């Protein structure tokens, strides 16, 4: 199934892009998205358990994904 | 539901007008401003970026939670995106309520939750010409 992984701030800078389309097995979780990008050198800039969101809501690494889901890796928040 | 992120200078007076109501005796306006931080070598401004679709949703959730706790409070807020020079406002939150206690409490709740949950990031543009991402401990 296809999911869209979105990156922001220094994560996007590290990976050199703001979006990574992924092809994952049925029943994959957010953790599987991370595993899919761990091979890139930029992944060393990610914490072991980054904040994640699925379809505009905070989620967990164990959160199961469905076709077309939008996953985001959220760097530590600094707004306001 | 009006969009809360804007790439233009904020207009706090407009937010006060949005929440004004004859039933409200107390109105609190919080304005967050970019500091020039001379102790850090000087900040010329901050580049704000966001995950805009999710930021709007988190703002919706925060305002809804505030309305559940303080049902009589009227809340309006704007967050600026893009480059904000030192001295200008990055966020403005207006809360009107029948009495000041609810207005203060709801205002505090909204800014504290915003800083914890809304996916926005800051890149300081230093006076030296360098830039650096802000880590939350210093936000």
Walkthrough of the structure:
The complex is a heterodimer of chains A (80) and B (139). The mean pLDDT of chain A is 96. Chain A is globular. With 80 residues, chain A is an alpha+beta fold. Chain A has a five-stranded mixed beta sheet with strand order 2-1-5-3-4, covered by helices on one side. Chain A is built from two helices and five strands. Chain A has a single domain, classed as Beta-grasp domain (Ubiquitin-like (UB roll)), CATH 3.10.20. The relative contact order of chain A is 0.30. Chain B is an alpha+beta fold and 139 residues long. Chain B has a single domain (5-138), classed as Aldehyde Oxidoreductase, domain 3 (Alpha-Beta Complex), CATH 3.90.1170.40. Chain B is built from three helices and eight strands. In chain B, strands 1-4-6-2 form a four-stranded mixed beta sheet, with helices on both faces. In chain B, strands 5-3-7-8 form a four-stranded antiparallel beta sheet, with no helix packed on it. In chain B, a hairpin with a 4-residue loop joins strand 7 (120-126) and strand 8. In chain B, helix 2 packs antiparallel against helix 3 (100-117). The model of chain B has no long low-confidence stretch (mean pLDDT 94). The interface between A and B is medium-sized, with 16 and 28 residues.
